[in-house]
Amino acid sequence: MSITGYVDTHCHLDDRRGDDLDTVLHAARAAGVGTMITVGCDLDTSRAALAIAARQSGVAATVGVHPHEARHGLDGIAALLDSPDVVAVGECGLDYHYDHSPRDVQRAVFAEQVALAAERSLPLVIHTREAWADTFDVLDAHPAPPSVVFHCFTGGADEARQCLDRGGYLSFSGIVTFRSATDVHAAARLCPADRLLAETDSPYLAPVPHRGRPNQPAYVTHVVAALAGLRNQAVTPVVDGIAATACTAFPRLAQLA
Fold first, then answer.
1. Interval 69-108: pLDDT, tens
2. 35 neighbors 57 (Cβ within 8 angstroms)
3. 130: cis peptide before it, omega within 30°?
4. Domain count along the chain
5. How confident is the model at residue 2 (pLDDT cuts 50, 70, 90)?
6. Distance CA 148, CA 88 (A)
7. Is residue 129 part of a domain?
């Protein structure tokens, strides 16, 4: 089986900035978003993501520790991976912009999650900010998970090629709708269709024309429209291509169909 319609491969349904969950999900479904992956960033948000996924059709979850939270370690995370609603480990990685956790701790906790994804044969969802070289070093030092998704891709063509050379998938957020994001535009143009994903990262990074307001999964339609425009394609083939690619990157998603 396969999924159809728009897919938001990365959102935070536990953090809706005051909006009711049913309202957010209704808006998403009304916009044609049939599948959403709600993402864990630490033990509590991973549990919350699983609880939402267990109750809602068309919603899957990830379990992981964000680099901001790396200082708290991975206690309790592995036990959550047995849930049938888990489609990936993450989001995890490195963030050298804020450095909310020490860099050596970030690297160690990221490496643990790379290994965990490989051991469990689960995809890995990566957050990397101002840390490309170390991100690639950690990945290259460990057995590869079955798939690696670079969430909220913010690099340019060079970083995109390095991700693609490692078999990675590029997931583009509302940043791709920003006129100033020329590096991201270049990456979106060169990304092969079978490695292209779309996300909102809601409630963050609302796309144009909603920039500056809380984001929500319904707005992934704007992300996909921007990708289609950059790639000189009609919207419908991009929607269908992303749905097919999402099932390849996250094989358990097909079970939601």
1. 999 999 999 999 999 999 999 999 999 999 999 999 999 9
2. no
3. no
4. 1
5. confident
6. 9
7. yes
179-221 pLDDT per residue, tens? 999 999 999 999 999 999 999 999 999 999 999 999 999 999 9
Q: What are phi and psi of 118, to 5 degrees?
A: -65, -45
Tokens standing for residue 143: 């057995």
Instruction: List the one residue out of 162, 109, 161 whose CA is nearest residue 138.
Output: 109
Query: What is the percent of the chain with per-residue pLDDT over 70, rounded to a whole number?
Result: 99
Residue 51 lies in a domain: yes
> Which residues are registered as beta bridge partners of 147?
none
What CATH number did the domain enclosing 32 receive? 3.20.20.140
Q: At what angle do helices 157-165 and 182-190 cross, to 10 degrees?
A: 40
- For residues 8 and 28, the answer to whether their CB atoms sit within 8 Å is yes
Residue 123 lies in a domain: yes
Type of residue numbered 98:
Y
* Residue 192: domain span: 6-224+248-256
Note whether residue 241 is domain-resident: no
Q: Rounded distance, CA 257 to CA 252, Å?
A: 10
Return d(Cα 214, Cα 235) in angstroms, integer.
24
Q: Which residues contact 171 (CB under 8 A, 6 or more apart)?
A: 9, 10, 149, 150, 151, 152, 153, 197, 198, 199
Positive or negative, the CA dihedral 11, 119, 68, 71 is positive
Give the three-state DSSP class for 124: strand
223 touches 177 (CB < 8 A) = yes
Residue type for position 155: G
192 CB contacts (<8 Å, ≥6 apart)? 164
